[in-house]
Amino acid sequence: MPYFRTQDGCSLYYETVGFEFARPAVIFLNGTLQTTMYWKVIAAALKPGFRSLLYDARGQGESELGPLPLSLDLHLDDLLALIRHLELGPVCLVGLSHGALLGYAMARRMPKAVSRLVMCAIGVRASPRARLVVRSWLKIIESGGLEAMVSAATPHVFGEAYLARNRKILDRIAKTIVRRNRASSVAAHLSAMTAYPSLSSMLGKLDMPLLVMSGADDPLVSTEGAAAVAEKSGGRHLLVKGAGHSIPVETPEWFLKTILQFLSDRWSDMPEAI
């Protein structure tokens, strides 16, 4: 299993798919409780036309938390160092939630390093309820542990349709998430997020194609907030009906088809909503 060691000595786990071919590179950026496992099926499906890089950011999955305090800038430094280590040219970034924020920040900091950007489940102007939900996760993990936090988060990170379809295996899904994460690292991640610059403060016209997706049944991201990100950045917004916060896993076939269209210059053919 390949690891990359940062300048401060933090070991980051990553996987490559299709790197034996000279094709455009796509980097997948995890959400808060995700690991490289989340993207493997999608990366395999993209292999005929793209190289894929999957990695666990500091504190996620197989990566170490490292000695430095977590911050958005530190995550950006890690991503840029990994891109340079693998000698990648301009890359396509696909991020969910926290990963979407990281992708946007990278596009602002190093626009020439990013050829296209896909952002899922992110927006501005979060509701008071959404803010309280996310803040409660840190308190829950500190008082009750990771298993309690994942249990509390599950109804908020999946849409109603997905929860209904998978009601018999929700406990197994939760246990898998717990097994792939560490309580101390997730707590450090959630704590660091409280000091991140707001997405609103970053918004501006981007120099590369941008696609923003939001789930119609996402209690954490409003349709208006996601659409505002696309509008102010010169991108496109797609509303995914019947999906919650975890769009790629809730609508896998549609998600794969959509990013293939976007990454392959056929994104003008996509509908406004599905």
TrEMBL record:
Q: What are the UniProt keywords, alphabetically? A: Hydrolase
Q: What is this protein called in UniProt? A: Hydrolase
Look up keyword Ribosomal protein and say if it applies. no
**Protein origin, superkingdom:** Bacteria
**Domain AB hydrolase-1: from-to ranges:** 26-256
Q: Which Pfam families does this chain map to?
A: Abhydrolase_6
Which GO MF terms are attached to this record? hydrolase activity
